[in-house]
Design brief:
Keywords: Amino-acid transport, Cell membrane, Membrane, Transmembrane, Transmembrane helix, Transport
Membrane topology: Multi-pass membrane protein
Distance between the termini: 34 Å
InterPro entries: ABC_transp_permease, BCAA_transport_permease
Largest sheet: 2 strands, antiparallel
Protein name: Branched-chain amino acid ABC transporter permease
Strand content: under 5%
Family: Belongs to the binding-protein-dependent transport system permease family. LivHM subfamily.
Length: about 300
């Protein structure tokens, strides 16, 4: 029973990280209809920024986190205004090709700058653990879960209780009506894309302290985020959270009880669930497309 409890805790921690990363993909796809194939590479950019801040400037990742989030928003906003906006409301293949190219370029740049050697952002608390009720969790992973929860709550508040958030929701639900009432759809797209990239930069920052990362990890993160978005329902934070926890728990259980092939089975299981979801509930666990956090 103790081992099972520990495995479930590990799954919850992993699910929290997946929820944060997948929410960025879900938001962008829900508002703009763009499936960002460079999503995983953006996670890695955040991880490498945090690693560089710690390695060269001695800045703790948690201290650097707000700055990295701001950089993520700026990067996403510029990327949308210069490139992504040109493929919005165009045939989906154009967006897939564009973001695939961006991801390939990002991967090549990261490989050139940092090589293929796995990195871990080492902090003063890297070797510490948190213990409660007989369970233990490494401090960096506990902070990853806590950080993901805080950022997701702030995102929920932004989408539901601010003028910008209401504009984003209006644009996702009915673009024509949003234009009629004076909402600048182009500006909304840029803001939504910026928020989506900021979320994954944050996810990368939290990931880097908890486990190793390398330039070729991006596609796997993109695939997992896509599986979670399909399972949870596009643009629905509640569905994304449930699906992420489900995937995290499955991956942790398989990795623990089938150690030789557990990780590979976790990825395969995620996509088996995607196929089942597409057959049984095409709109995902939480229903139709909507950029609402708590419904």
């Amino acid at each position: 029973m103790g081992q099972l409890s520990q495995v479930l805790l590990d799954g919850i921690v992993l699910g929290g990280f997946y929820a944060l990363v997948a929410q960025g993909l879900s938001l962008v796809f829900g508002v703009m209809g763009v499936l960002n194939l460079a999503h995983g590479e953006c996670v890695l950019i955040g991880a490498y920024l945090a690693w560089a801040a710690q390695q060269y400037l001695g800045i703790d990742p948690l201290v650097a986190l707000p700055v990295i989030i701001a950089l993520g928003f700026g990067f996403g906003w510029v990327l949308c205004r210069t490139l992504v906006i040109r493929v919005v409301e165009r045939p989906p293949l154009m967006a897939l090709l564009l973001t695939f190219g961006i991801g390939a370029i990002a991967q090549g740049v990261l490989l050139k700058l940092f090589s293929s050697t796995p990195r871990v952002t080492t902090t003063s608390y890297s070797a510490e653990v948190v213990s409660f009720f007989g369970l233990t969790i490494p401090t960096p992973r506990a902070l990853m879960l806590l950080g993901a929860i805080v950022i997701l709550v702030l995102t929920w508040a932004l989408l539901n209780h601010t003028r910008v958030g209401r504009s984003i929701q209006a644009a996702s639900q009915n673009k024509a009506a949003a234009r009629v009432v004076g909402i600048d759809i182009t500006a909304v797209y840029a803001i939504a894309f910026g928020i989506g990239i900021a979320l994954v930069f944050a996810g990368g920052t939290l990931l880097g302290s908890a486990q190793g990362f390398y330039p070729f990890l991006g596609p796997l993160l993109t695939m997992k985020a896509f599986a979670i978005v399909v399972l949870g329902g596009v643009g629905r934070m509640s569905g994304t959270l449930v699906a992420a926890m489900f995937i995290g728990l499955i991956e942790a259980i398989l990795a623990s009880y089938v150690p030789s092939v557990g990780t590979g089975l976790g990825v395969a299981a995620a996509f088996v669930l995607v196929v089942i979801a597409l057959v049984v509930r095409p709109n995902g666990i939480s229903g139709g497309k909507r950029v609402m956090a708590g419904v």
